[in-house]
Structure formats: structure tokens, C-alpha cells
Amino acid sequence: QVQLxxxxxxLVQAGGSLRLSCAASGxxxxxxxxxxxxQAPGKEREFVAYINISGGTTSYADSVKGRFTISKDNxxxxxxxxxxxLKPDDTAVYYCAAAQRSLFFRLRSVTTSYDYWGQGTQVxxxx
Length: 127
Known about the structure:
single chain; mainly beta; 7-stranded mixed β-sheet; 4-stranded antiparallel β-sheet; 11 strands; 0% helix
């Protein structure tokens, strides 16, 4: 079993940047595909980004494509989400999730495809 802890959230002005981290313990992330999701108040949890086990394949939601970058550092057992040009609509609790296999494209945005979840970190973007 793997435990995930997100960090790096906070308050930032529109147009600013944040880098979220997701640190794993218990198992090595080199065996997991990883995803980032977010949930705004009153809304369902939505897919943000995905990276496969090897780190060679990534996917992004259309709303963040070109602004966010997911990466994986197996040596540090950490996954990152670099968020640039932030908008107020990006305000949400951000969660990282781990899947025990690389996922086909249509499954990457599905929450039930993932086996483990972190507790989330709040990101607030002011206008």
C-alpha cells in the first residue's frame, strides 16, 4: 500500500504560479501511474493531469493544457504539478492519486481507475 501526501498549495494572484508536490511512502512510485484531480466547492472531482508508470506519457484536461505540467521524480518518490498562468477558475482542492497500472486514455480521467488518494491541498487563485 502507498500513502500519498500533497503539499505546495496556497493563495496566489491570477497569472501566478504554484508547484504542487505529492510525496509517497510505503511503496515506490516507480511502480505506479499517477494522476492529479481537483474539486471546487459544490462541484464534482475533475481530472487535471496524468503520467504513466515510466513517465513517458502524459495527459491533461483541456482546461489546463499548456499551463500545467505533470512530472515524476522516482528517485525522490514524488510527483509534481507545475501550474502556471493560474486563473480564478483553478481554485480547488487538488488531490494526487496512484494507479497500480498504466491507464488507457479513456480511463485516465476516471476516479475509480486509481487505487490510492492523498488528502488534498488547497489552491486559491485571487482575481
